[in-house]
């Protein structure tokens, strides 16, 4: 299965602290802002304390004080920068000392050598229903096929599709399929990063970026996210919750 490749990220720090039950799938409000993010997005309109820019060029999400969720295909990372809208400054930088892969999936947990002091994101207990508004975050390409990487965190508001819409990209019922087209999509450098539902300051992690949702190209298409909810028990077991 094709995967969204890594883009260079600055040195980073990762930490995770698990919140309680996930927030309801409230509508994501349209946010003003400049910039051309992800592909067709905007500069981040808030600081996401749990967003991670990893040293291997991928994204991730802090889910517990010493754990982040990311994509297996991103490979190893030495560190992560947590809670900053700038790719190479701000937030907290933490070293990564080990990783745990979920067999048969593109889901990986990375352990931090020291805890983060920042608030982690809540994790979904069920995959969101089709037509649910969803927000994607990342430092990846802002254009395709001529890639221009973001230095400021980008966000875009799209929609959850039935999982079958991403079957051509290898999606299953355990995955989350997100709408997209040539001008609105995740892209290279967004791998491992979050798809969240909710409202400002109250977000729930529903998926991590895996790859394109169809077989027409690597970007500018629907996007396939590994669902968090189907593996929540495994995640909690690994992080000791």
From TrEMBL:
Which SUPFAM superfamilies does the record match to this protein? Trypsin-like serine proteases
* Family, as annotated: Belongs to the peptidase S1 family.
**Protein name according to UniProt:** Trypsin-like serine protease
In its UniProt record, which GO terms are filed under biological process? proteolysis
Domain Peptidase S1 residues, every copy: 38-240
User: Which Pfam family is one of those matched by this entry?
Assistant: Trypsin
Signal peptide limits = 1-26
Key words, A-Z: Disulfide bond, Hydrolase, Protease, Signal
Q: Domain of life, per the record?
A: Bacteria
Cited PANTHER family: FI18310P1-RELATED (PTHR24276:SF98), POLYSERASE-RELATED (PTHR24276)
Which Gene3D superfamilies does the entry link to?
Answer: Trypsin-like serine proteases
One GO MF term, please?
A: serine-type endopeptidase activity
> What does the record give as the organism's lineage?
Bacteria, Bacillati, Actinomycetota, Actinomycetes, Streptosporangiales
């Amino acid at each position: 299965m094709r995967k969204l490749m890594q883009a260079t990220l600055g040195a980073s720090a990762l930490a995770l602290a698990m919140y309680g039950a996930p927030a309801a799938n409230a509508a994501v409000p349209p946010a003003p802002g400049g910039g051309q993010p992800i592909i067709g997005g905007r500069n981040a309109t808030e600081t996401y304390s749990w967003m991670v820019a990893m040293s291997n060029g991928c994204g991730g999400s802090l889910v517990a004080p010493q754990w982040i969720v990311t994509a297996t295909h991103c490979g190893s990372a030495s560190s992560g920068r947590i809670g900053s809208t700038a790719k190479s400054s701000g937030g907290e930088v933490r070293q990564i000392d080990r990783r745990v892969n979920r067999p048969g999936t593109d889901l990986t947990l990375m352990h931090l050598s020291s805890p983060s002091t920042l608030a982690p994101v809540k994790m979904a207990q069920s995959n969101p229903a089709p037509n649910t508004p969803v927000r994607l975050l990342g430092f990846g390409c802002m254009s395709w096929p001529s890639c221009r990487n973001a230095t400021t965190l980008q966000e875009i508001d799209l929609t959850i599709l039935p999982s079958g819409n991403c079957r051509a990209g290898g999606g299953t019922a355990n995955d989350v399929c997100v709408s997209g087209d040539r001008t609105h999509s995740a892209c290279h450098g967004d791998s491992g990063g979050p798809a969240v539902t909710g409202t400002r300051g109250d977000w729930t992690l529903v998926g991590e970026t895996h790859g394109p949702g169809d077989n027409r190209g690597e970007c500018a298409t629907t996007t396939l996210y590994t669902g968090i909810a189907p593996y929540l028990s495994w995640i909690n077991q690994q992080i000791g919750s």
